[in-house]
Amino acid sequence: TRTYSIAVIPGDGIGKEIVPPAQAVLEKATKGLVNFDYETFDLGAERYLRDGSTLPDEELNRIKNKDAILLGAVGDPRIKAGIIERGLLLKLRFALDQYVNLRPSKLFEGVTSPLANPGKIDFVVVREGTEGLYVGAGGAIRRGTPHEVATEVSINTAFGVERVVRYAFALAMKRRRHVTLVHKKNVLTNAGDMWQRIVDAVAKEFPEVTTDYQHVDAATIFIVTDPSRFDVILTDNLFGDIITDEAGAVVGGVGYSASGNINASNEYPSMFEPIHGSAPDIAGKGIANPTAAILSTALMLRHLGFDDPADRIETAVEADIKESATAKRSTAEVGSDILARL
Ligand code: IPM
Ligand code: MN
């Protein structure tokens, strides 16, 4: 049994509470099969408030040498928006070249969707993770004057788009073989046209995969009116950010939504995190639901090549949700209920 070294970043608020049950599930599901060696990193809003650092080089370099990263949640209302986001979370995604932001949405049996007729919802958003409007290209001049100019430039490279497009098609081959490109090519004619051409070219190599296209505004409608039409949704960084929150809502809330920030070429570690945030309003009470964090460990195992324990974790979570989704349980209770099913 090989040992995998994992960087654990519990982060802030409920992040600290949901990571331990996730680690316990990971341990039990892989007992005798994989060894994990954890190193916990004190990063996040609290660290920033204490010493002003978000992600020092020395810690980034140590993280770079891990096999994977498990992240709870980061953020704190006391800190100006953007500091932790850019200084820690996005810095990790960019520095570790995590170009696939993988976000599955599945409506589990036992969970109430806000949709009257949800049907069967089971799709995955493949969100580009290192380009687009998130790169921070642009700037501000004449700041604070009436003539202030602020620009945010969306960067889309053929290289960056092609690699995420290929990932989406390969993933579709393992699923229902359908890829929907979501963009806004009627207005963003430069980037949209390039995305579409690259999709068309890659599609030729995957004759079994059917493809279609939706403008992002239309896609937000179909996600609530006909979500079962989707299998793999492929989109850029910002559109993907927005539609995955909507996707989380239609499957009963982001409390069930896991995600992977994946460097599919395995040059650097990939990072697995629940989609939800640090939830300062319920932090410290021991009532946060660890399900999304637990599902994130399954994504991590799949990425590391361990499909069996990943399947077992997902099966245990599905059974737990089916039986107890509406029960009032503490973080520890949900964790031990899922553990007991493994
Ligand atoms: C997410 C979050 C982040 C994003 C923020 C916190 C930078 O909303 O993971 O979806 O925009 O990607
Ligand atoms: Mn988001």
TrEMBL record:
Cofactor: Mg(2+); Mn(2+)
Subunit structure comment from the entry: Homodimer.
Positions bound to Mg(2+): 217, 241, 245
Organism name: Bifidobacterium fermentum
Molecular function GO labels: 3-isopropylmalate dehydrogenase activity; metal ion binding
Swiss-Prot/TrEMBL site (Important for catalysis) positions: 134, 184
Top-tier EC class: oxidoreductase
Name of this protein: 3-isopropylmalate dehydrogenase
One annotated GO biological process: L-leucine biosynthetic process
